[in-house]
User: Which sequence fits this backbone?
């Protein structure tokens, strides 16, 4: 008798797809009919898969893509509105939803592997937040980005956190206060995405970038990613003190010894991820 998948597995399978391509994991948002909105189920699926990836030493980079005509339209407003009828007007539900969504964003930042967004279409509100949270992003010319909450009386406060840590203040405030859609080219110009490619090529370009990163020492990439996000929140003096200690610890690793030796000897290093 074939074992039936658990409700948790079904949710992950339906809301989010995972495919491993060698040592790279591709996570695909899979609610195309619902514009890949970040429903409670989608958020739970993302969090569960990120938790798995954090412990998966075989995976060295992650690509985040989406099926359908929209990368992600942000939170599921219909789902949120349905809780207006709760005894507290939906306050407890909204608080729990925002907390779980924020936990997903933090999980991406804390993941040992770099996460690269591959954006073919529009990413709005919390969908834009998701792109901004990823370590790197590739966008097709068919993509667009906006934080339009202000247009419906709901300022994009949580997307603001990721957006304001990616682009200069006036660019962030322009997006937040106007709600206007910006093109992939403009998103690249202001630092929201790294590369712009032809329509249909975002996933392939993100995979190529992931393969380049996956060829490095996983231990060094993990150390560097963690250090980057920690130091960026510090004052400059504290950041230098912290980064200096990270450099010392890095120099003590096997892979630093191997990498420097390979450079001096003009050979390809053999990483042991330690």
Assistant:
């Amino acid at each position: 008798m074939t074992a039936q998948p658990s409700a948790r597995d079904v949710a992950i399978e339906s809301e989010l797809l995972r495919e491993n391509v060698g040592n790279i994991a591709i996570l695909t948002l899979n609610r195309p009919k619902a514009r890949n909105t970040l429903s409670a189920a989608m958020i739970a699926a993302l969090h569960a898969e990120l938790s798995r990836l954090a412990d998966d030493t075989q995976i060295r980079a992650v690509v985040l893509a989406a099926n359908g005509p929209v990368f992600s339209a942000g939170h599921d407003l219909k789902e949120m509105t349905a809780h207006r009828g709760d005894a507290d007007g939906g306050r407890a539900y909204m608080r729990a939803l925002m907390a779980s969504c924020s936990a997903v964003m933090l999980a991406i930042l804390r993941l040992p592997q770099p996460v690269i967004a591959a954006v073919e279409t529009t990413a709005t509100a919390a969908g834009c937040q998701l792109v901004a949270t990823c370590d790197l992003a590739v966008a097709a010319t068919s993509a667009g980005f906006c934080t339009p909450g202000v247009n419906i009386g709901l300022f994009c406060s949580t997307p603001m956190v990721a957006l304001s840590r990616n682009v200069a203040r006036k660019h962030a405030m322009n997006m937040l206060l106007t709600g206007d859609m910006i093109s992939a080219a403009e998103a690249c110009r202001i630092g929201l995405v790294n590369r712009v490619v032809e329509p249909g090529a975002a996933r392939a370009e993100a995979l190529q970038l992931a393969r380049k990163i996956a060829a490095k020492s996983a231990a060094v990439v993990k150390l560097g990613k963690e250090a980057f996000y920690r130091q960026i929140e510090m004052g400059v003096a504290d950041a230098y003190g912290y980064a200096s200690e990270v450099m010392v610890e890095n120099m003590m690793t096997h892979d630093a010894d191997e990498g420097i030796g390979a450079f001096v000897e003009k050979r390809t290093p053999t990483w042991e991820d330690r």
